[in-house]
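ok new one. same drill as before - structure tokens go in, u give me an amino acid for every spot. 294 of them this time. try not to just spam alanines like last time pls lmao
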């Protein structure tokens, strides 16, 4: 797959996740965060199961145990990030959550460099800085009033960074993007349901009332968007993927304003422009200025 098409898939995933923030927020009117996570990932697992099965039937070799272990680690990071984000959404706004979740675009390059010792294309650093500044401007240029939900969402950003890196590490060598997604979703669903039923209990009426949010986040924001992420990351680096995926903060602010009547500050429009300039830099920079040969 051409790199520009892979990046388009990642951008699409970011847009879908931005819309998902609204559904995640309104779902908390009826359901606890852990039960909601469990149900959305259960739906995603059921939707993706036949596609993962077809992928396994067509594969020449079975999945290596080391790769399955990597898939499970990605699923654990996915659940941890989603749990922190979902609990945080009960306290903070959709716009703030989208901004703070977008901090993973800053964490990914540093974790990649410091932990995995992977050299990065020089263009990634200014693009990362531009993205971070753009997200900060989108939030109005102030973080003075951080609350507990904001702090939880910062923890979510760390876990997202780890998840993005793990996906990038294992999806290429395994050649099984749909299987990776299925393992991620299944593990997150099991953990969410187990914790939700233990801590929050089960109310059928509340589940029925939240069914539109469960189906949208399960089928579209999880089953489709995370699979687009996994497929796209086969053909690009984790830091570059993080930049495209971080557009979810822009779309979260837009959908929050349109659907929930949350206000976008004037500075936010300039921040959105800066984010898209960063995307163009990440997309065109490696082409215009290729890395020197070793």
């Amino acid at each position: 797959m051409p790199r520009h098409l892979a990046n388009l898939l990642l951008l699409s995933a970011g847009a879908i996740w931005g819309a998902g923030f609204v559904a995640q927020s309104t779902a908390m009117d009826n359901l606890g965060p852990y039960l909601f996570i469990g149900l959305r990932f259960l739906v995603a697992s059921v939707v993706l199961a036949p596609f993962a099965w077809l992928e396994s039937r067509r594969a020449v070799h079975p999945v290596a145990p080391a790769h399955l272990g990597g898939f499970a680690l990605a699923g654990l990071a996915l659940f941890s990030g989603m749990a922190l984000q979902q609990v945080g959404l009960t306290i903070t706004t959709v716009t703030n959550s989208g901004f703070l979740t977008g901090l993973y675009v800053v964490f990914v390059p540093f974790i990649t460099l410091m932990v995995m010792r992977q050299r990065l294309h020089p263009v990634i650093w200014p693009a990362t800085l531009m993205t971070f500044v753009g997200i900060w401007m989108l939030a109005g240029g102030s973080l003075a009033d951080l609350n507990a939900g904001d702090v939880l969402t910062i923890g979510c950003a760390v876990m997202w960074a780890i998840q993005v890196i793990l996906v990038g590490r294992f999806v290429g060598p395994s050649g099984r993007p749909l299987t990776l997604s299925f393992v991620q979703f299944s593990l997150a669903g099991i953990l969410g349901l187990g914790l939700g039923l233990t801590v929050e209990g089960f109310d059928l009426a509340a589940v029925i009332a939240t069914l539109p949010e469960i189906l949208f986040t399960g089928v579209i924001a999880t089953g489709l968007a995370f699979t687009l992420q996994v497929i796209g990351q086969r053909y690009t680096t984790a830091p570059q993927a993080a930049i495209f995926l971080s557009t979810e903060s822009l779309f979260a602010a837009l959908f929050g304003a349109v659907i929930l009547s949350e206000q976008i500050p004037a500075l936010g429009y300039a921040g959105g422009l800066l984010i898209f300039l960063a995307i163009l830099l990440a997309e065109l920079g490696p082409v215009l200025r290729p890395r020197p040969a070793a």
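Residues 3-285 form one domain. and btw The first helix runs from residue 3 to 27.
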